[in-house]
Amino acid sequence: MANILIVDDEQSYRQLLSLVFETDGHNVVTAMNGREALEILDTEVTDLIISDVRMPDMDGISLLREARTSYPDIGMIMMTAFATVDTAREAFKLGADDFVQKPFDVEELKIIVRKTLDKQELVVENRNFKRAQREKGSIKNIVGRSQKMQAVYQMIETVAEVQSTVLINGESGTGKELVARAIHDLSPRAEKPFVSINCGAFTETLLESELFGYVKGAFTGANVNRKGLFEAANKGTIFLDEIGEMSPAMQVKLLRVLQERRVRPVGGHEELAIDSRVIAATNRDLKAMVGDGTFREDLFYRISVIPIVLPPLRERKEDIAELVSHFINKFCQQTGRMLTISPKAAQMLENYAWHGNVRELEHTIERAVALERTDEIQPERLPEHISNYNPARINAEFDFPDEGINFTAHIENLEKTYVVEALRRTSGNQTKAADLLRIPVRSLRHLLDKHNIRTLSAQMRGSD
Q: Does residue 342 sit in the same domain as residue 419?
């Protein structure tokens, strides 16, 4: 049994088709034109539309166009007594499932209706199956059953159904992009693109081109028009990672896009309407940045309509055992092996502070699986800084003079020391040094300027 909407300005056809399909057990509703049909679609569950092409007020082709945009899963069969090749071509181009010429054989029409309904059922079942698999995968990738993670899961499911912007805040390695993908996959936009970009990985000019696109001739090397990520994510979701690294000028441009829902490609004059849900993420304290004037207050409130805070791994240590098991299974599947972890090694992992959070734990397990030659991961396969980690010893060795310290100077000196050491270990490679420090390259360059050591990386490269 299906819900069928008959649309025809001729009463005789409406009555005939109503009788035919009600006799077959279907629920039938009728409309005199496309305008009336759209009003019915807003209030009635409809599986199939059988519509005449020529009608007053709104014809069948216009109805087809509107219905396909708002109700893509509804079957559409078009009828006309004035069939032309151009009309049929346009109908099929707009997504009609079949095209019938009046007068028609009732039994043939019933067969067409049955095939269309069967096809629509398969399409819906396939879409629902894919969505269920995607949702299962997205949530499965976020591991942890602690109380803090339960709150995160609940927030993901809640915000997925709305269209408000979301700001995900958390330390590096806590899984901010996994949460963004889960929100997208659980949302009504799941069938549309999910596009992500790390705002800290691009200069201001390149970031503008990536986000908004550019037109041919906009700058040297712009040989063709290029679509921006906002346009690529139309009807879907765009994930702006490390938004705290965005320059003040780009913050102004992004704010305008979020307010007006339109983008202008670099070098272009025309604006494009966009419908992309924005999810942003940062490991920085944006409120503090607003206070010191490095992040716009109006943009902060625009992107943080719904905030989600991801807890660091050290605050949910009860999840470490489950994460360890998850990553062991993941890397064992890639190698075709079966491994467990020794109780002593497991205890070491639970004792460690995990400043790099889940990402650091994942890399640690990947290393251990690759190096282990027995059936059980041993403590010797863990990095020394983890196997030798002793919080009590670290606290005992902590030097704090009785007379106190110049805290600001001490922190700046420590900051410079780590930057120089990272550059030394990477032979002056700024990208690799930033990876060691787990900060964006732009932040590293800021530190080089802050401590007046910009030329140091070049010197270290030259010394190889």
A: no
Helices (H), 352-383: 357-371
Q: Closest by alpha carbon to 258, among 293, 225, 198, 300?
A: 300
CB atoms within 10 A of CB 208: 20
Nearest-angstrom CA–CA distance, 349 and 362 = 11
Which element (helix H / strand E) includes 173?
Answer: none
- The CATH number that applies at residue 248 is 3.40.50.300
What pTM, to 2 d.p., does this model score? 0.63
Q: Are 63 and 50 in contact (CB under 8 A)?
A: no
CB under 8 Å to 287, separation ≥6 — which residues? 300
Angle, helices 147-160 vs 176-185, to 10°: value is 40
Please report, in angstroms and rounded to a whole number, the separation of the first and last CA atoms in the chain.
77
Number of other residues whose CB lies within 10 A of the CB of residue 304: 19
String of DSSP letters for 294-313: SS-HHHHHHH-SEEEEPPPG
Three-state DSSP class for 346? helix
Same domain (yes/no): 161, 302:
yes
Task: Please tell me what DSSP assigns to residue 266.
Answer: B
Instruction: Write the CA distances from 268 to 1, 5, 219, 225, 435, integer angstroms.
Output: 52, 45, 11, 10, 36
Does 66 reside within a domain?
yes
Q: CATH code at 426?
A: 1.10.10
pLDDT, tens digit, for every residue of 68-83?
A: 888 888 899 988 887 6
Mean pLDDT of 156-171: 93
Give residue 443's domain range. Answer: 407-462
Residue 195: strand, helix, or coil? strand
The rounded distance, in Å, linking the Cα atoms of 230 and 212 is 6
